[in-house]
């Protein structure tokens, strides 16, 4: 299951690389007038649209990953790839990744007071809570 999802991510990276390579070759070819430049632009637009659709599918499939680190990694990579085409969607993905990262970390802020209520000690603890689970049974 995970291998299938990562295989689709690799296919997406390959598609983006092909689009980028075609963009580089089209830039060198623009110096020479081409009768099919409109056709090439249309084909490039189709490829980009398919790449974005595949990226959206990878994002959707990544929600089934069990480890939050993997979800975060996919969302950050997808946000980076989408930034040029759809900044609002990319910003949402990066915000969600940051929120998931924040959920994995717990910060405990404590102060110790003296008898006359002066702060004499301040402790800040940061805990990795990825492998902790809270259960509350009210029977």
Could you give a quick summary of the protein structure above?
With 139 residues, this protein is of the alpha+beta class. It has a domain at 2-29 and 37-104.
- Major β-sheet, in short? 2 strands, antiparallel
Order of helices and strands: HHHHEE
Distance between the termini: 37 Å
Which class of secondary structure composition applies to the elements?
A: alpha+beta
Quote the average pLDDT: 79
Q: What is the β-strand count?
A: 2
Radius of gyration: 24 Å
Helical residue percent? 55-70%
Give the CA-based shape: elongated
Question: Which regions have little confidence, pLDDT < 50, spanning 5+ residues?
Answer: none
Q: Strand content of the residues, in percent?
A: 5-15%
- Count of DSSP-assigned helices: 4
Strand order of the largest sheet: 1-2
Task: Explain what you see.
With 139 residues, this protein is α+β, with helices and mostly antiparallel strands. It has a domain at 2-29 and 37-104. 63% of the residues lie in helices and 14% in strands. It is built from four helices and two strands, in the order ααααββ. The chain has a two-stranded antiparallel ribbon. The longest helix has 28 residues, at 2-29.
Write the layout of secondary structure elements.
Layout: H1 2-29, H2 37-62, H3 68-82, H4 87-104, E1 105-113, E2 119-128
Antiparallel strand pairs: 1-2
Keywords:
single chain, 139 residues, alpha+beta, elongated
């Amino acid at each position: 299951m995970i291998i299938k999802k990562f295989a689709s991510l690799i296919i997406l990276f390959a598609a983006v690389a092909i689009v980028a390579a075609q963009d580089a070759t089209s830039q060198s070819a623009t110096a020479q007038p081409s009768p099919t430049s409109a056709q090439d632009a249309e084909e490039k637009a189709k490829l980009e649209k398919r790449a974005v659709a595949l990226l959206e599918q990878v994002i959707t499939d990544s929600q089934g990953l069990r480890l939050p680190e993997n979800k975060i990694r996919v969302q950050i990579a997808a946000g980076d790839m989408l930034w040029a085409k759809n900044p609002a969607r990319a910003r949402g993905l990066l915000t969600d990744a940051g929120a998931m990262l924040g959920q994995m970390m717990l910060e405990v802020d404590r102060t110790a007071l003296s008898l006359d209520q002066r702060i004499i000690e301040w402790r800040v603890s940061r805990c990795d809570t990825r492998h902790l689970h809270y259960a509350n049974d009210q029977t």
